[in-house]
Specification:
About 40% of the residues lie in helices and about 15% in strands. The chain is of the alpha/beta class. The protein has two domains: about 10-135 and about 290-305, Rossmann fold (3-Layer(aba) Sandwich); about 135-285, 3-Layer(aba) Sandwich (Rossmann fold). β3, α4 and β4 (about 125-130) form a beta-alpha-beta unit. α1 (about 15-30) packs across α5 (about 135-150) and α5 packs across α11. The longest helix is centred in the C-terminal third of the chain and has 29 residues, at about 285-310. The chain binds phosphoric acid mono(formamide)ester. Phosphoric acid mono(formamide)ester binds near residues 57 and 265.
Length: about 325
């Protein structure tokens, strides 16, 4: 098992073996959570910066917990109260943290490719915490971890992603990870919310949720991005609910042990009914717990790769 990357920018370019390495590394970190002291010393002396240009509850907190549980020094920057509002560029902001000796910068940005820009310009390792409509790799990894934890395999499973696929970076990272692991991935939603060439990624497209959900092993429900409703991408919220809400009746046609997943934040009563969100099939809170373990694994592996590279270059780490 090896992982020799400087950055984690997306799952598109990871080999299956690298994805497996992250998942295997996350398992012992998860078992740490049941101990009274949930800390390991792996990142003592390392500095992690959480740089979020967009709102976040889960990802930002999860990375902060992950870094702290590995004993790193971590700071979280809310860009609304930083010098970004005075017009500082992304690269200058990144270089400022590098001058403070940040080892890892975790970035969320509305611009697809922003993490790659930082990665090309900084020696610090960059983790993409969600960039535009592009990728949200740690969400894809934690979703994969959750499915493996519950189903013990992914190969051959029928996995449905339903909702706003077009604007969803979670959907893209899930598709890259799940198809590499051999899942049969379906996407469902209104035609206006499904990208034209999505079949090139090896997924099956359904515009009828009732057909798509039949016999699936996993349904991962994506948030309807209400902030985009002014673009008239579907006729009305009422119509969306009628055609695409995952309800108990619809879920009854999936496999009896179907896993119900949602990356959050949920719009209860829109893309998911409250009964489904709170059902015994739902693993939504477990996804959150698993997210910390997976992010610990990513931080740990990136630091290990930096240490290896540092030794090669004759630096002491
Ligand atoms: N799943 C996810 O990215 O949630 P946040 O926007 O709260 O980080």
């Amino acid at each position: 098992m090896s992982f020799n990357r400087k950055d984690l920018l997306g799952l598109e370019y990871l080999e299956k073996q690298e994805i497996q390495t992250i998942i295997e590394t996350a398992k012992p970190f998860k078992s740490l959570f049941t101990r009274s002291i949930k800390k390991a010393p792996a990142l003592v002396g390392k500095t992690v910066v959480n740089l979020f240009y967009e709102p976040s509850t889960r990802t930002r907190t999860s990375f902060e917990f992950a870094a702290k549980r590995l004993s790193a020094d971590v700071v979280s920057i809310a860009t609304a109260t930083s010098s970004v509002v005075k017009g500082e560029s992304l690269i200058d902001t990144g270089k400022t943290f590098e001058a403070m000796k940040a080892d890892i910068i975790i970035i969320r940005h509305s611009l697809a490719g922003a993490p790659e820009i930082l990665a090309k310009n900084l020696n610090a390792s960059i983790i993409n915490a969600g960039d535009g409509f592009h990728e949200h790799p740690t969400q894809g990894l934690l979703d994969l971890f959750t499915i493996l934890d519950k189903k013990k395999k992914v190969e051959g499973l029928k996995i449905l992603l339903v909702g706003d696929i077009l604007h969803s970076r979670v959907a893209k990272s899930n598709i890259w990870a799940l198809t590499k692991m051999g899942a049969k991935v379906r996407v469902a939603g209104p035609p206006t919310l499904i990208p034209k060439h999505i079949t090139d990624l090896g997924v099956e497209v359904f515009y009828d949720l009732d057909k798509a959900i039949k016999n699936v092993d996993v349904v991962n429900i994506l948030r309807i991005q209400m902030e985009r409703q002014q673009e008239n991408l579907f006729p009305s919220v009422h119509e969306y609910v009628e055609l695409y809400q995952v309800t108990e009746d619809r879920l009854a046609t999936a496999k009896p042990d179907v896993l119900v997943m949602h990356p959050g934040p949920m719009n209860r009563g829109i893309e998911i009914s409250s009964q489904v969100a709170d059902s015994s099939n739902a693993v939504i809170n477990e996804q959150v717990t698993n997210g910390i373990a997976v992010r610990m694994a990513v931080l740990y592996l990136l630091v290990a790769a930096r240490n290896k590279q540092g030794k090669k270059n004759g630096n002491i780490n």
